[in-house]
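quick q for whoever's on today - can somebody do inverse folding on this one?? i tried earlier but teh output was garbage lol. tokens:
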């Protein structure tokens, strides 16, 4: 009788191991990965985004997507109203997340310099929510980007 009881116990242990392994395999193949809402995944095509949210109110996440379009040559002209406050350091962080070789420089006037250096130029240190923001670039490869607020 003792041998029979141990046999069932061993069989039950094997079944439990198979169930645990099966659940692990199913989670691996069908579980997928969860992306953070604020995580930016590159590369992406934002030409449609630049057209659709032009002249609307945008969040900082939308601004990052549009900025990606400008730095990659997908967008050339954009204006919108900000729904969040933005600072020079916020823009600098967004630019570095897209392309670490691009510099961000603050200027006084809203005009692109005549020499192209693949730089982002800002004419503000901080822009409050509800203010208009304007982005422009020349239609050439590695153009400078101008952001006016």
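ok took a stab at it. sequence:
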């Amino acid at each position: 009788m003792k041998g029979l009881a141990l046999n069932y116990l061993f069989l039950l242990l094997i079944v439990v191991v198979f169930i645990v392994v099966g659940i692990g395999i199913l989670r691996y193949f069908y579980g997928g990965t969860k992306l953070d809402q604020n995580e930016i995944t590159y590369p992406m095509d934002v030409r449609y985004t630049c057209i659709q949210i032009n002249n609307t109110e945008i969040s900082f996440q939308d601004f990052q997507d549009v900025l990606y379009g400008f730095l990659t040559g997908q967008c050339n002209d954009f204006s919108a109203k900000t729904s969040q406050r933005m600072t020079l350091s916020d823009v600098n962080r967004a630019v570095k997340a897209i392309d670490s070789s691009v510099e961000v420089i603050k200027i006084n006037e809203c005009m692109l310099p005549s020499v192209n250096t693949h730089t982002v130029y800002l004419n503000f240190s901080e822009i409050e929510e509800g203010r208009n923001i304007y982005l422009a670039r020349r239609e050439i490869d590695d153009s400078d980007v101008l952001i006016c607020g």
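fwiw Residues 2-30 form the longest helix (29 residues). also The chain has four helices and eight strands. so keep that in mind when u check it
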